[in-house]
Amino acid sequence: MKLKGKIIDIQNKHIYKGEITFENGKIISIVEKEHSVNRYILPGFIDAHIHIESSMLVPSEFARIAVTHGTVATVSDPHEIANVLGIEGVEFMIENGKQVPFKFNFGAPSCVPATDFESAGAVIDFEGIKLLLENPDIKYLAELMNYPGVLFDDAEVLKKIEWAKHYDKPIDGHAPGLRGEDISKYINAGISTDHECFTYEEALEKLQKGMKILIREGSAAKNLEALIDLLPDHFENMMFCSDDKHPDDLIIGHINQLCARAVSKGVDVFKVLQAACVNPVKHYNLDVGLLNVGDAADFILVEDISAFKTLQTYINGALVFDRGEPLIKSVVFENPNNFKCSKKEISDFRFESSAEKIRVIEALEGQLVTNELIEDALIENGNLESNVEKDILKMTVVNRYENSEPAIAFIKNFGLKEGAIASSVAHDSHNIIAVGVSDEAICKAVNLIIENKGGICAVSDSDLSIGTGEEKIVPLPVAGIMSDKDGETIGKQYAELDRTAKDLGSNLNAPFMTLSFMALLVIPALKLSDKGLFDGKDFKFTSLEV
């Protein structure tokens, strides 16, 4: 087959009119040739770090959306499903991904559970990591979130690193805010990337010390504005990623959006495409074509090199997206899960106290980091209550793998004026997390998740004690974190639920995505696990009451 267009040669920084010939999934020839076709041909985009599960789609359905934006491959950390189902969950992701023409590149989840301070559904120790890394389908050791384990020479963590080195596979990092001697030790352990930088200075230091830095724009964490000015001088050592992308956002765009924004800020298009297309292939040794003779025929046709509107996407020579129509078929799959807790009572969410002050988590728009605040307690009948006027709302994390007492905290900036929202997408252990204006609302939302064995939901109407509150839920029957529906359906359902949360008063851009990170203990400053309030700076539990 032959295709004409303006061919973008990223390596030689050259755009020319030409023709590509490809057969049996490989590029046979690329020649300069005059023609009048006004479109560009370039390598496909690669998301250099993403958790497919956060799209709430199984890999095969994720692929059907991603190719519409010119994405041909991902570097995917399956630690979300691994925390629920262990190695069985990783194998589900690999096998489901193989059912469609898309290049998923999965890693071995290094932190299952992410910490010892929470309850997960599985454990993958260093022997499990060895088993995974032996598999040629596993391309790297996924993000080492337990950076204290590296800094303090934890034997289990170091064994996982050694197995990655033994199999000559890259090791991904996760070290938000780590600087100075600490980041030097982390890098010297063999860890090669970081996608958690939230300041220019932090990213620059890590680049200067030899790390590859990923610019992340997800549904919650957005770091492009802070880091983009590094790209012109460090384009050979930077990549683009989503990390976590909710389905409604994925329908709108993917890595193409980062490219468009970078170009709009004046960054040279070749440097942008080096980060978006070339660097992930080189760093992770991916079997993805880069528009060279002999390469796999993985490339895209775009309308222009400013907005990067995709016209066609080819993977291994197969046309998988054509002018508005994804050509990847849906596949049949089972719904593995791990959900064992029973429904809760309203009294389970009481927190008896006489404290005058409490510690409060401050959620920050567009960030995974939080602040720790000290605020006045609101106590009624001996119970710590939400203070809606001050936007200090009660929050809970409920162990979904066994019956235990809910953990309670308080959080600021969710803005709810009535009702509650809840989710079984709660990084990384994926217990049930909820925030609401009253114990009644929180209990109703939590039980809705339990009844459905996973999902995200919103409960409206503050008078829930007599059962008049309205409720909406998007069920997530695959491990309690993914849908069994197609991307368009789940995207619309999620968008509707997102609007409901905002109708309840939330002014966050992505309230459910933000909520899902409020149990992520490895990112400071203050988070909540099913075992209690956690100080991410000192890496230990702390008290709600001051």
Would you spell out the secondary-structure blueprint of this structure?
Layout: E1 2-9, E2 14-23, E3 26-32, E4 40-43, E5 45-50, H1 59-66, E6 71-76, H2 79-85, H3 87-97, E7 103-108, H4 126-133, E8 138-144, H5 147-151, H6 155-166, E9 171-173, H7 180-188, E10 193-194, H8 200-208, E11 212-216, H9 224-227, H10 231-234, E12 238-241, H11 247-252, H12 255-264, H13 269-284, E13 299-302, E14 310-315, E15 318-322, E16 325-326, E17 357-363, E18 370-376, E19 379-380, E20 383-384, E21 392-398, E22 407-412, E23 420-423, E24 432-436, H14 439-451, E25 455-459, E26 471-475, H15 487-503, H16 511-516, E27 526-529, E28 532-535, E29 540-541
Parallel strand pairs: 1-4, 5-6, 6-7, 7-8, 8-9, 10-11, 11-12, 17-22
Antiparallel strand pairs: 1-2, 2-3, 4-13, 13-14, 14-15, 15-16, 17-18, 19-20, 21-22, 21-24, 23-24, 23-25, 25-26, 27-28, 28-29
Helix pairs in contact: 2-3, 4-6, 12-13
- The level-1 CATH class of the largest domain: Alpha Beta
Query: Unreliable runs, pLDDT <50, ≥5 residues?
Result: none
Structural category: alpha/beta
- Beta-strand level of the residues, as a percent range? 25-35%
For CATH, the homologous superfamily of the largest domain is named as: Metal-dependent hydrolases
- The CATH architecture name of the largest domain reads Alpha-Beta Barrel
Compute the average pLDDT.
95
* Count of discrete domains: 2
Largest sheet: 8 strands, mixed
